[in-house]
Amino acid sequence: MLEVTVLTAFPRLFVATVDEGMIRVAREKARLAVHVVDLRDYSDDAHRTVDDYPYGGGAGMVLKPEPVYRAVEALRAQGRAPEEFIHLTPQGRTYTQADAQALSERGSIALLCGRYKGVDERIVEGLVTREISIGDYVLSGGEFAALVIIDSLARLLPGVLGTFDSAESDSFASGLLDGAYYTRPEEYAGRRVPAVLLSGHHEEIRRYRRREALERTWRRRPDLLRGASMDDEDRAYLAELARREPGRSGGGKAAGDSDEGGS
Ligand code: 9D3
């Protein structure tokens, strides 16, 4: 059982979201527990204040240390001190599937959601074991980042996914992007499903899909090819792609590089 404690000034953001989808499945199977702590419950004034102006001036508010320390004290008093105390912040290391895998093997983690300008540095120095960002874009707080992380963990917990949708077959686990998928009908809007997929030749289908995955990854996310496990046939196919379109390989993904197709 993984216990996730979220510390936030916006607890209602979690009410509906953790009651749906894969997070709900993991909770119902008792693989995951999500505890949401309202930091305002640990404020010390009638206005339930948790933030204050930054020393030195400037716009925006800073999360005060006392409510966070009191909330953590309360967890310790209940015997629920988390193994990891994670601060969600644009200053953190960018979250990856490897982080998800490692965190899913923990017994308990806490996720501290910053809002405002940031959190008082004494919180980071005294409590935080790691800082995580979910990517290079600006959110208004850590709450949606916490939900992204909880979702990524829920589906890795044993017994949550069926074998069909197994975590091992995920594109980031194999190291390659998925190729295209098709379902019925065989022809739609004048576009036919590739004949090989209708052929019933399982070995040809496997090879076709592998090549599609390799080609997409080569075009869209060549950075992923370094970490993917490949056999000689895979490498030969990538070499063939590079011969057909010299100049693409070795370059990495340039800003504004477009995908296959285009107009
Ligand atoms: C580096 C940006 N800061 C410069 C003044 C301002 C700022 C922007 C957004 C400070 C805090 C926030 C709120 N964002 C999060 O708390 C956050 C976040 C994000 O914005 N992007 C990606 N991952 C995360 S995790 C938490």
How does this structure look, described?
- The chain is α/β, with parallel strands linked by helices.
- It has two domains: 2-154, SPOUT methyltransferase, trefoil knot domain (Alpha/beta knot, 3-Layer(aba) Sandwich); 187-244, Orthogonal Bundle (Trp Operon Repressor, Chain A), CATH 1.10.1270.20.
- 33% of the residues lie in helices and 17% in strands.
- It is built from nine helices and ten strands.
- It has helices at 21-28, 65-77, 97-104, 121-126, 143-154, 171-174, 195-198, 202-220, 232-244, and strands at residues 2-8, 32-38, 51-52, 62-63, 84-94, 108-113, 118-119, 130-133, 187-188, 191-192.
- The strands form three sheets. A five-stranded parallel beta sheet has the order 2-1-6-5-8. Strands 3-4-7 form a three-stranded mixed beta sheet.
- Strand 5, helix 3 and strand 6 form a beta-alpha-beta unit.
- Helix 3 (97-104) packs across helix 5 and helix 8 crosses helix 9 (232-244).
- The protein is elongated, with a radius of gyration of 23 Å.
- The site of ligand 9D3 has 16 residues, from strand 5.
- Ligand 9D3 binds at residues 88-90, 114, 117-118, 133-135, 137-142, 145.
Summarize, please.
Helix 3 (97-104) crosses helix 5 and helix 8 crosses helix 9 (232-244). This protein has helices at residues 21-28, 65-77, 97-104, 121-126, 143-154, 171-174, 195-198, 202-220, 232-244; strands at 2-8, 32-38, 51-52, 62-63, 84-94, 108-113, 118-119, 130-133, 187-188, 191-192. It has 263 residues and is of the alpha/beta class.
CATH superfamily of the largest domain: SPOUT methyltransferase, trefoil knot domain
Q: How are the strands of the biggest sheet laid out side by side?
A: 2-1-6-5-8
Q: What fraction, in percent, of the residue positions are helical?
A: 25-40%
* Beta-strand fraction estimate: 15-25%
- Known CATH architecture of the largest domain: 3-Layer(aba) Sandwich
